[in-house]
Amino acid sequence: MTHDAQPTASHFIDGQYVEDTAGDAIAVIYPATGEQIATVHAATPAIIDRALDSAARAQADWAALPGVERGRILRRAADILRDRNDALSRLETLDTGKPIQETLVADATSGADALEYFGGLAGDISGRHIPLGGGDFAYTIPRPLGVCAGIGAWNYPTQIACWKGAPALAAGNAMVFKPSETTPLCALKVAEILHEAGLPPGLFNVIQGAGPVGAALSTDPRVAKVSLTGSVPTGRKVYAAAAQSMKHVTMELGGKSPLVIFDDATLDDAVSGAINANFYSSGQVCSNGTRVFVHEAVVGDFLERLEARVAKAVIGDPLDPATNFGPMTTEAQMQIVLGHLDTARAEGARVVCGGHRIERAGYWIAPTVLADVTDAMTCARDEIFGPVMSVLTFTAEDEVIARANDTAFGLSAGVFTRDIARAHRVVAQLKAGTAWINEYNLTPAGMPFGGSKASGIGRENAREALDHFTEVQTVYVGTHPVEAAF
Ligand code: NDP
């Protein structure tokens, strides 16, 4: 089967596609079948240089434009993304294996939302006026940082490129973006569309490669900031590398987030929330609520309803709009998840449904619910990054808050209850960057998103993201004769 997924060239630099076959070949695999659908080449040092140099050349003029002009280009790019949603969603499905039913509503559209949102804000980036008494005052100027590096994970290649690119560009920066080597296709389309929308060459360059290319960006003196979406171990390495030259960082890392379901919750909503928190994108979502704490009084009913709902998952060709559950994005990730399932069984977790590989071409794991899970089990402690929900039980509010917080991660949390006082009281005590009440995993562009503790630093989306792509210059204005000691 031909998928027409081969990009024009591996990299997009200075407004055009660029190839350098001297870089290691990277096979692009369609995860639903395991077939190779394209080849790209990792960036050589020459390509990395070219990308950084062109970004550095372009950035100052871009920063000097009025914000509304920058914003207009971003909003135009948002419109093009939406116009081409069908083709972009298909490419995202080929790149990641996620069902087209998901990619049509969650990827190019989410990227367009970010471009539109930050396009709108670009004209409103402003500082503060600080009266200092006696007529003196200070003011602040949010300055762009310069050239920023974006490094992406493989689960949301279009969205991650836009979530990083849109605020960076709105604030007057340039970006060199390195997608995950396993999903290299979609960010190229984002670059192409931004330039078609009028972005001057050099401001959003995409270069391919694995960890070493990301590491080169994280240490290069031309880079002022690194924004990474990835795992905690990679985050530690990138943060440490960036510290050598005191770069700004945003770290969007992994999680093991709690989803707490009280006995007064609307149970069908809670089941829907738990499904969205575990099986969307086959569980390859950083913010997933994978530790589902269910009140003892309703756990039987919850598991029964959940099992019946999971049995309705439509597992099949991700390009078929009826399919709502796809494969793992890589074979390696499938093997990691299978290893976790073996460990869970060995440690005493009960498999309610799933728990095995689906025997078909590609990298498929059945949606899995584990019950009788205890806090100490590996499946309740480690991020699995696959379609594996661990169900734990609790009886008291204080107890569940303490157990929910007993993790090194702090990305997200969720609470299902009809008691609004309890909902707010509980989320206020959960150590998580983002919490949902009677919902899960919705991340609109206007809402800050990011982690605490090991899950990261900084925030994406909303006005907060602009703060992370600017630094404040403060200006003191004297209005009096200057006093001096002598
Ligand atoms: P990885 O940490 O393996 O990789 C992330 C990116 O970093 C990839 O582009 C990778 O390159 C690159 N990289 C690897 N090593 C280095 C290095 N030493 N220096 C610089 N860059 C490097 O994550 P995954 O791609 O496996 O993504 C899954 C992880 O991402 C999960 O832990 C998940 O929770 C997290 N994630 C977090 C999100 C959030 O917003 N908080 C959202 C989505 C995912 P390559 O892979 O090509 O080798």
TrEMBL record:
GO terms for biological process: glycine betaine biosynthetic process from choline. Residues 18-475 form the Aldehyde dehydrogenase domain. It comes from the Bacteria. InterPro entries: Ald_DH/histidinol_DH, Ald_DH_C, Ald_DH_CS_CYS, Ald_DH_CS_GLU, Ald_DH_N, Aldehyde_DH_dom, BADH. PROSITE patterns: ALDEHYDE_DEHYDR_CYS (PS00070), ALDEHYDE_DEHYDR_GLU (PS00687). Its EC number is 1.2.1.8. One of its GO terms (molecular function) is betaine-aldehyde dehydrogenase (NAD+) activity. The active site is at E252. Keywords: Metal-binding, NAD, Oxidation, Oxidoreductase, Potassium. Pfam families: Aldedh (PF00171). Belongs to the aldehyde dehydrogenase family. This is Betaine-aldehyde dehydrogenase. It comes from Palleronia salina.
